Amino acid sequence: MRMIIKGGRVVDPEKLDGIMDVYIENDTIAAIIEKKNDSPPFKEDDADRVINAEGCIVAPGLIDMHVHLREPGEEYKESIETGIQAAGAGGFTSICCMPNTKPVNDSKEVTTYILKRAMSLRSVRVFPVAAVSLGLEGEALSEYGELKEAGAVAVTDDGHPVVNSQLMRRAIEYSKSIGIPVISHTEELTLSNGVMNEGPVATRLGLSGIPNAAESIMVMRDIAMAELTGGPVHIAHVSTSESVREIRAAKQRGVPVTAETAPHFFTLTDQSVAEYDTHAKMYPPLRAAKDRRSVCEALADGTIDAIATDHAPHSALEKEVPFDEAANGIIGLETSLPLGLRLVDEGLLTLPQLIEKMSLNPARILGLSAGVRIGGKADLTVIDPSRQYVYHAAEGFSKSRNTPFDGWEMKGRASFTIVDGRIVHEI
Amino acid sequence: MGLSRKDILDIDSLSVDEIQTILDTADGLKEINSRPIKKVPTLRGKTVILFFHEPSTRTRTSFDIAAKRLSADSISISASTSSMVKGETLIDTAKNLEAMSPDIIVLRHASSGAPYLLAKTLSASIINAGDGMHAHPTQALLDMMTVREEKGRLEGLRIAIIGDIAHSRVARSNVAGFTKMGAEVCLAGPPTMIPYGVDTLGAHVTYDMDEAIEGADVVMTLRIQRERQKSFLFPTEREYAKRYGLTPDRLKHIPPDALIMHPGPINRGVEIAPEIADGPYSVILDQVANGVALRMSLLYLLGGGVRNADDH
Ligand SMILES: [Zn+2]
Question: What is the value of ipTM here, to two decimals?
Answer without folding.
Answer: 0.93
